[in-house]
Amino acid sequence: MAELQLKSLEKKYGNGFKAVHGIDLEVQEGEFMVLVGPSGCAKSTTLRMIAGLETITGGEVRIGDNVVNDLVPGKRGIAMVFQNYALYPHMKVRRNLSFGLKIKRQPKDRIEAATGEVSGILEIEELLERLPKQLSGGQAQRVALGRALIKQPEVFLFDEPLSNLDAKLRASMRVRITDLHKRLRDEGRPATVVYVTHDQVEAMTMGDRICVMKDGHIMQVADPRTLYDRPANAFVGGFIGMPEMNLVPAVLTRDPDLRLTAGGQSVAVPDGLAHRLGIPDGAVTMGLRPQHLTLVAPGSDGAFDAKVVNVEFMGHEINVHARLGDAVLVAVVPTGGMGAEVSRGDLIGLRPDGARIHLFDAETGKNVSLTNHH
């Protein structure tokens, strides 16, 4: 296995459109790196440049000690798993798995041993004599995974591999792929993985680290907990987390007490937030995670009063949607508390956890509440 480096990587098309804007990224040997972002953020374009399926118009891709910009895909030491599986329809599973090794003229006993090992790891031994058209979506995805695994490449590349599967199968395949990655690491055969998805739940549950992209730029690279607790900007804060972070226009004032005003209401800035602020008064975007809002009686200290517009019963919790000025906030509350009694049209209080409020610069989106924040 090898580490992967992207240095000032660019993609510019003939019509002048720039899809990737000089990004830098390092993926350590054996690391599971997820590229995530909304449709059109250039995560798949970036992956295809690593693979050699898109031409690179600036910067370099380095795999191990080699700059691979000018190498064809087959010479880069990569294996790719696609969204559509890309199995050979006329070949049985056994031959689909072994075809890459046959092309490389590997000895027959080596091919048979590798096919047996990979099919055992992925529990597809009973599928070896079937054609792709006889496989379910989950089975076909495991065969595609096996075909990549059998090559023992320097780097594995996954392009939205689970997006064609139903929700239940997607969840089980997430576990299967991450378990496989951990097993190879434990066996001393670490697999370097770059995995593209638009699904932030997939990203959070699978990645050692996550690279959040927007419009061909990298917004932040960090482990899942850091992205959730310490988003570098409002985009990352709003993209990572379910339900998504509430982003509310607000004004920070010191007159003389530190206060936040939103939706025509003003509350004292809690100590948990005040001690880490080193910014002047003025317009900010207040970030409140739904899980960090507590339902209280209207008029309570440190709370914003809001009118309930919708209540979603989720089984183990309740999502309360309530209007504060022009914004609608979502609060995730336990089924056993006040949430069980609220209904549309009620006036409620929403008290943010002071240590968990994020303030973002209204113009740049940068998180200005991370100073001294642990």
Automatic annotation (TrEMBL):
Record has Iron as a keyword: no
Pfam entry (one): ABC_tran
InterPro entries cross-referenced by the UniProt entry: AAA+_ATPase (IPR003593), ABC_transporter-like_ATP-bd (IPR003439), ABC_transporter-like_CS (IPR017871), ABC_transpr_MalK/UgpC-like (IPR047641), Mo/tungstate-bd_C_term_dom (IPR008995), NA-bd_OB-fold (IPR012340), P-loop_NTPase (IPR027417), Transp-assoc_OB_typ2 (IPR013611)
Domain ABC transporter: 4-240
One Gene Ontology molecular-function label: ATP binding
SUPFAM superfamilies reported in the protein's UniProt record: MOP-like, P-loop containing nucleoside triphosphate hydrolases
Domain of life: Bacteria
Keywords: ATP-binding, Hydrolase, Nucleotide-binding, Transport
SMART domains in the record: AAA (SM00382)
Record PROSITE patterns: ABC_TRANSPORTER_1, ABC_TRANSPORTER_2
Top enzyme category: hydrolase
EC number: 3.6.3.20
GO terms under cellular component: ATP-binding cassette (ABC) transporter complex, substrate-binding subunit-containing; maltose transport complex
Family recorded in the similarity comment: Belongs to the ABC transporter superfamily.
PANTHER family: MALTODEXTRIN IMPORT ATP-BINDING PROTEIN MSMX (PTHR43875), MALTOSE_MALTODEXTRIN IMPORT ATP-BINDING PROTEIN MALK (PTHR43875:SF3)
Name of the protein this chain belongs to: sn-glycerol-3-phosphate import ATP-binding protein UgpC
Gene from which this protein is expressed: ugpC_2
